[in-house]
Specification:
- This protein is an alpha/beta fold.
- It contains 16 helices and 13 strands.
- The strands form two sheets. The chain has a seven-stranded parallel β-sheet, with helices on both faces.
- Helix 11 (about 275-285) links the parallel strand 11 (about 265) and strand 12 (about 290).
- The relative contact order is 0.12.
Length: about 350
Amino acid sequence: MNNPTVKQPTAVICLSPHIGGMELASLKLAKTLSRYVDLTFIIQEGKFIHQQCLNNPDYQSLRFETIAFSKTLGFSLIVNGRRIVQKYGIKNVIFLGASELKSLYFSFLGLDINLIVRHGTIKSTPKKDCFHRLVYSDVAYHVPISKYMSENVRAIIPFGGKSQMRVIVPSLPKPISTLAKTSSETLRLLHAGRVTSGKGIDKAILACSVLKENGIAFTFDNFGPADPKFAQKLEILLASVSYRDKIHINGFTDSIYDEYQRHDIFIFPTPDEGYGTVRLEAISHGIIVIAFDNTAISNFGEMGFHIHLIEDQNLDALKERLLFIARNFEEEKRLSLENITKAAVTFAASREASEYLELLH
């Protein structure tokens, strides 16, 4: 493994204000690479990532710089981005995001920057107009996080004359929980993700009807931030089912790893998830995983993990498989526990770091 003196100063940049997979991935990647290179983490002032750097012991050792801005294409972002890069003599930039790249193009103009763009979400709108061709023209490496996503990147994103693409599968954000797995006479379902449209919580809740109909005792827990705009839809959904008392919406938690140990089935029927770090985490903890077969989730099956992939958006098929798992629980649990050993190698942080270090100057 490379030591910190081999590579030139590096920045990981994620300017998103949100709480989600990309933001957590940026924190994890910055922490991982900081062990091997002189690294600065550039983030938006006062938002979730900033608070994590200030208050979460996992990330307090990171050197970070913040930028306050209101527009993704604006003077503050351009000027301060350039100031920070020059302050630390940064030569490598790994960017996670999308819209802020418009400003960063001008921040880096005339500087010798090895620009790497990590792609962690599926994009639907082509970016091949003249302005986006200019913005992406200096990208040295596009790094999709799955084979499936590489096809999307190639179709949507313009490549410069020297741009290359490398797939780098993410590593597990941190070591798996040391909490002992618990058992229960009640089947315990877990959904982790924002309580909003497009994250599959509606179909996950509706699928539980098959357990109710077949007299199988169960509970359903969600952990994730709530979207206020979805509150009314959620209330209507909960009012429509006869097992509302089994559904628990718990809010965001910093201890999701422990919840994998306290639950039996991870149900995540999202319609469109670029990679889904929570699925990687669930597989690594040996919990039974059931999801729609769309986007990058199919790659986990190709890697040899035991997971249940259901025809996309087919609620009846989701119910049928959930009932199958419940009726064959001990065997499904045994097969899923075998994922732990394979995941420890496949999702190792040292492997991910090594692959990124190969791209750095």
